[in-house]
Amino acid sequence: MLSLSLSGTDRTCCASCQLTRLNLSGIALCTTGALQLLSDGIRGCRLLQHLDLRDAWEGESSSTEGWVAVIDACRNSIQTLDMSSNDIGGDGWREIAGALGECAQLVALTVADNCEDGASALAAALGRCTALECLNVEGVVEERAGAVALIDGLARCSRMRDLNLHSSDAGPDGAQALARTMAGWELQQLVLSYCDIGDAGASALGAVLGGCTRLQHLRLGSNTISCAGATGLAVGLGACVSLEELALNGNTIADEGVDAVALALKGCEKLAKVVLDANRMSKAGLEMLYRELPGCEIVCGGLGQHPVSPQPE
Q1: Which of 33, 85, 142, 229 could join 55 via S-S bond, C-beta 3.0 to 4.6 A?
Q2: What are the pLDDT digits (tens) for 68-127?
Q3: Nearest by Cα to 216 from 166, 162, 266
Q4: What ranges in 87-153 are assigned the alpha helix state H?
Q5: How far is CA 288 from CA 71, 148, 234, 291, in A?
Q6: Are 216 and 242 within 8 A, CB to CB?
Q7: Among residues 90, 125, 215, 224, which one has the least CA distance to residue 170?
Q8: Cα distance between residue 140 and residue 118, in whole Å
């Protein structure tokens, strides 16, 4: 495998038709012309599979035309593409998403930390990327309708194993749509923190978690989940035999909900960490967690005004 890294200030590029990996993170491109020169340079790299363009733009507003040219230049070979932190937004998403939809071999896409309002445009395009396994759209989805549309658009991505929708405002409808969509997936990581899925969304996920036997990381922090939602989630948690980490921090779960979750997790032998900061459980609830999950790290920053006690003997 041949690779080339031009991150930071090193901007010297030697075109090679044998190049398979190109890292241009932090290169500080600032004109459409620069992006088009880049596209011309990689068009002959027919083996290029991995392209890292994180934080590559340094202009007042990102160049739609330039990004489309870059994507188009490698659409027949690209497998992993990172375009995070490039100030992409607004109407530009529509054309960029259209170019992404032509990348038939795309396996992993990261567009996190760009401008919002990209969900609706991405929804239609990603449905054509049927090889997609990993998607990170953190911070790109603003409106709930857009989040639901994006999730529905992933229905044809049957190989999905890693999905990050952090801060997407999916809401209960989005979580319910995801529950329908993910039924045939072999997920390993699901990030839905700060999505406001509520009790209805958590319960919808719980109903399908029974089929997620490969799920390793589930992050549902700051989602207005109470005891009812935690109990609903617990319905399927016990079947997640590969689960290593569960994050439910920043919700409103009290002892009853914590108890339901703990009992479900007893069957998850690989579980190493449970995060429950900023919930409503009591000291007795925390001690129950230690008893039920003796080999697991329990992360809870405080109970009321009191620091968490060490694990009871």
Answers
A1: 85
A2: 999 999 999 999 999 999 888 777 788 899 999 999 999 999 999 987 777 778 888 888
A3: 162
A4: 92-100, 119-126, 144-153
A5: 52, 37, 16, 5
A6: yes
A7: 224
A8: 6
Q: What is the pTM of this model?
A: 0.90
Contacts of 205 (CB under 8 A, 6+ apart): 175, 178, 179, 192, 197, 220, 233, 236
Q: Which residues, in sequence order, are CB contacts of 201 under 8 Å at separation 6+?
A: 170, 171, 172, 174, 175, 176, 195, 223, 229
Query: What are 297's strand-pairing partners?
Result: 273
Burial readout 258-283 (b: 16 or more C-beta within 10 A, e: otherwise): bbbbbebbeebeebeebbbebbbbee
Q: Retrieve residue 304's tokens.
A: 């009321």
Chain centroid to Cα 51, Å, comes to: 19
Q: Report the distance separating Cα 146 and Cα 163, nearest Å.
A: 16
Q: Which residues contact 307 (CB under 8 A, 6 or more apart)?
A: none
Q: Copy the structure tokens of residue 231.
A: 């109990």
